[in-house]
Amino acid sequence: MLVKALFLDRDGTIIHDSSESIVALDQVRLIDRADDALALAKRAGFKLIMISNQGGIAKGVVTKERVDEINALLQSILATKNASLDLLYYAPYHPKYPKPEYDAFKSWRKPETGMIRQAQRDLAAQGLEIDFANSFFIGDKQIDVECGLRAGLRSILVKTGYGEEEICKEKHTLPELVANDLCDAIDYVLKINRANVVRHA
Ligand SMILES: [Mg+2]
To answer: How far is the CA of 1 from the centre of ligand 1 (A)?
Structure first.
């Protein structure tokens, strides 16, 4: 079965980013209306898939266990609005801090597309095939936009977090849309989705 998906960066897109890595549970603060927006996308049939670089693990500023706790807290917050994520991936690798146990995840670090390919395999195991032409990558950095484009997805940049619009221009990796925040981005996705549904009805 063909499914649409929203690939989502975490820090600066779903939750507020900080200048360093997110390392503590009290740093998990949802960006305004992100939960309501994700719930609408989920109800419209989109698989919600988190794709996050967590190089702080290789760097030694946060443990893998803490990242799992932070993600579990995020999931519990989203679950109260029926907006929990379907799949979560993070890349512990960092190019400046090589560690034998994490170097296998080099191809996972955005803008590389390893996490998207892994999601594709994991969904295939459930008999689901991603409809790339109607699926999106939403993030606040140029690497998010590039990762989405490399994977054949439609990229949206959000202005929350780093909002790297100028860097996208410099690197010639232009998103389909620059949205104020996740809520505006999902609003755009759902408008396109409704138009497609009407066209195919
Ligand atoms: Mg980010």
So the answer is: 30
Q: Is pLDDT above 80 for 201? A: no
51-55, 74-78, 195-199, range with the lowest pLDDT: 195-199
| 30 DSSP assignment | B
Between CA 146 and CA 180 the distance in angstroms is 19
The CA 139 to ligand 1 mean position distance, Å, reads 6
CATH assignment of 2-199, among 1.10.3720.10, 3.90.230.10, 3.40.50.1000, 3.30.360.10 = 3.40.50.1000
Measured CA to CA in angstroms, residue 126 lies from 6, 73, 114 at distances of 17, 26, 19
Q: Tell how far the Cα of 63 is from the centroid of ligand 1, in angstroms.
A: 19
- E strands, 23-161, in order: 47-53, 87-91, 129-130, 136-139, 154-158
**Extents of the domains making up the chain:** 2-199
Q: Note the pLDDT of residue 30.
A: 97
Q: Phi and psi for 157 in degrees, rounded to 5?
A: -100, 135
Full-model pTM: 0.97
- Copy the structure tokens of residue 30: 């949802």
Distance 144 CA to ligand 1 centre (A): 8
Active site amino acids: 9, 11
Sign of CA pseudo-dihedral 102, 89, 20, 79:
negative
Residue 186 contacts residue 7 (beta carbons within 8 Å): no
